[in-house]
Write a structure and sequence with these properties.
Blueprint lengths: L1 H35 L1 E7 L14 E7 L18 E2 L14 E2 L15 E6 L15 E17 L2 E25 L1 H13 L18 E8 L1 H13 L1 E6 L13 E2 H5 L21
Antiparallel strand pairs: 1-2, 3-4, 5-8, 6-7, 6-9, 7-8, 7-10
């Protein structure tokens, strides 16, 4: 009796061991098959330099075992085409989301229409509409220039005659592409906000930049306007005028000088002598 009970126990233990082994082998097989399952991954087909706009020429989709897919690897060409490489990429490299920049956000050139240019001009609180300029605003550019005819020198300085000052509208309906900020002013603003306490309610909108934070703006202009604006900055003073987004019709504005502005009548220039001479004592 005891021998039969021992035999049954041994058979049961053997069956349990076989079942446990089969379960382990099945689980291991599923794990290996899952790791070996092919996954679509976008890889480079050639050397890619940093700041390169990627298109179909630079990429292809290949199948890679799931185990060897790198974290963050992109799976479809739609996720890659139109973006910019942030770092150099070797042929066959899996393209990661962290190695690319957004073409429309980080790279300003992708927002410049064909045939147009972007130029930066320096501004301050006065010439930059009190720091109220924002991307996509539309502005006019007004230049103020001084004229005069050199008439001599005094104390090492050139003197001028017939001096006058004119204000001229150089360009209208110019779109602002981006606004440059002074990092120090922004850091001071962030520090001041932090000192107010972390428990302060979140504002509905981003706070305006502090005074003096905006140091330059990038404008969308034509190639001809690029030359005009560069020259105007060298010979005069540039000021921006913010336009309403609902009022973009061009305005015909004349050149304005101090005499026209103040309605000062220009004096008549006398002739050097009469047009006739009285002849006396003639015979």
């Amino acid at each position: 009796m005891k021998g039969r009970l021992g035999l049954l126990i041994s058979i049961g233990a053997g069956v349990f061991a076989v079942i446990a082994m089969m379960l382990y082998l099945n689980a291991r097989e599923r794990s290996l098959m899952d790791q070996a399952a092919p996954q679509d991954v976008v890889v480079t087909t050639q050397n890619v330099l940093a700041n390169t706009a990627l298109d179909e020429r630079f990429i292809q989709v290949v199948k890679v075992p799931r185990k060897y897919v790198q974290p963050g690897a992109l799976r479809s060409p739609q996720e890659v085409v139109g973006r910019v490489s942030a770092v150099p990429l070797l042929p066959g490299s899996q393209i990661l989301g962290t190695t690319l920049l957004e073409g429309g956000r980080e790279s300003l050139s992708f927002n410049v229409p064909r045939g147009m240019r972007v130029i930066a001009i320096a501004v301050n609180d006065i010439t930059g509409v009190g720091g109220e300029l924002r991307p996509r605003n539309v502005v006019d550019l007004i230049g103020v220039f001084e004229y005069g005819v050199p008439s001599g020198s005094q104390g090492g300085q050139i003197t001028y005659a017939q001096e006058r000052t004119e204000a001229i509208t150089i360009a209208q309906n110019v779109q602002i592409m981006s606004v440059g900020m002074d990092p120090r002013a922004l850091a001071e603003q962030a520090q001041a906000a932090a000192e107010k306490g972390k428990d302060a309610p979140m504002p509905n909108a981003a706070p305006p930049p502090p005074a003096g934070a905006i140091t330059n703006v990038c404008l969308l202009v034509t190639p001809q306007q690029v030359q005009e604006i560069i020259l105007a900055q060298q010979i005069g003073t540039m000021t921006l005028s913010l336009r309403s987004s609902l009022d973009l019709a061009p305005v015909d504005l004349p050149r304005l000088d101090e005499n026209t502005f103040l309605k000062i009548p220009m004096p008549m220039k006398p002739k050097s002598g009469p047009s006739w001479r009285e002849m006396r004592g003639g015979r």
